[in-house]
Predict the 3D structure of the following.
Amino acid sequence: MAENRQKKNGGGPFGHNGPGEKAGNFWKSIGRLFKYMGVYRIMIIVSFALSAASTVFFVVGPKILGNATSELASGLSGKISGNGGMNFEAIGRILITVLIIYSIGALFSFFANILMAYIAQNVTFKMRKDISVKLNNLPMSYFESHKHGDILSAITNDVDTLGQALNQSISSVITSIATIIGVVVMMLTINPLLTLIAVVMIPLSFGLIAVTVKKSQKHFIAQQQHLASLNGQVEENYGGHLVITAFNKEEDVINDFKDENKIMYTSAWKSQFISGLMQPIVFGIGNIAYVAVAIFGSMLAINGTIKIGDIQAFIQYVRNLAQPIQQLSQVMTQVQTMAAASERVFKFIDEPSEKPVENPISLPENIEGKVEFEHVHFGYVENQTIINDFTFTAEPHNKVAIVGPTGAGKTTLVKLLMRFYDLNSGSIKIDGVDIGKVDRSEVRSEFGMVLQDTWLFGGTIMENLRYGKENATDEEVIQAAKSAHADHFIRNLPDGYNTVLNEDASNLSLGERQLLTIARAFLADRKMLILDEATSSVDTRTEAIIQSAMDNLMKGRTSFVIAHRLSTIKNADQILVLNKGDIVEQGNHNELLAKGGIYADLYNSQFSEDE
């Protein structure tokens, strides 16, 4: 079932192609990430410089420490031959020098890591901010075609992955590269022949790392994709837990999750297994080089070509050369995950925003609320028209009801009126001004909305009501609640207007939530209203209360009411009966009943059901 869902949605999240996708954008993603970090260019350079400086001090240490070994060997040799003794003063000076050098290196490394952590946190902060801005500028079509889990995963998991990888990997990469260069230079100052033997491991190790990265990157991408899909399933199952339980679908949900989790496990296991091969491969090559240097170095020491201290320093450098290569192999795992995460984040940021209106004009300062639909054509998909040559005029302060069967185009009309979508052709005018030439935010600021889905956020009732008008006084909020018939039940709550709603406001009944959304619309005090089947999910008594509140709200406003229960729109000034995007009947309640057409059939069937 999980596989079917994946196919149904056209591949992985944000348009990826699933587990089999090749990592063709690895360097492109990494390059773009560094370009994105360009604002912190100076701090990055300083951090890199500090990392390189600390490496220099750590690299110089073994050679100086080798001098102490040579002094010890010389002192022992002189003591045995009777020609001298230990020069503890010289050895002490060398050890103190090494201690100072390592301390300075550690200090530089500390500041480099602090600076890199600061950069990483600022980059993730900026990235989340850019995602938030993008989220609020995406067209409605995006939200209707993508899972919420994909978006949540981009904001949380992917950005967190980027932040951790930046903090841990970038400094390590610079330190490792600087260490390799510094160690090779110091080796050359000791003995070029031994250096040649030792550095053979470098191209061999990096070649094997490159092959491993290429093989494992596609699995890292798949891992991030399926993590987003798992998030979507968890959110979906949590939000629909009541329905799942009611239909005894717990076992199906568990099986779906197991299927997706198994795919996630497979991609994660493959990515970690393949990338995990890098460290033992590099470690094995390093040990071979270590043995070779030890053998040839001993032969050179016997011949008197190099000092014993130089052998000790060189062998330590061989160990130091293997360590950064091993570290790079470990860091590449994080870099691969970072590349996969950044690819997803940037793909989200690159999603096309709502097209701004060029040279927008403004609506009249005090609008009357006359709305005209002129030969409107629209379809969500090209060549599939839903609204066909729709023409209608709503006079100021009129109540216009829109009825019709499912799929007739009722909600689509509202979306066009709010400019959630642009028309294929035709125009919609408010007080004679084409809203297609007006900035979307200005159009939406003239409408109040009460929807069937009562959206309330976690917070107090007072805060939720003020969402309609942020600077409203307590008295204005309370008056709006009274007008919506919500004040009584609010005051009966334990904390009144300070009662905290949970995430989905389930600590209130559906009718109470609906009254709050009406009060919120009262407080916003817009000239035009959209009411989308606001009473379709409540009982008859609650419907009467909500209907009374909505009647109060609609007074003096141009209102568009999408109605399911036709008894609620008998007093509408105009009733539009839609079918397949066309107006098939038009008139008031009595006129349409007298015609004996579709509306009369719908009304009589509901009336007989009520009886």
Summary: DSSP finds 21 helices and twelve strands in the chain. The radius of gyration is 36 Å.
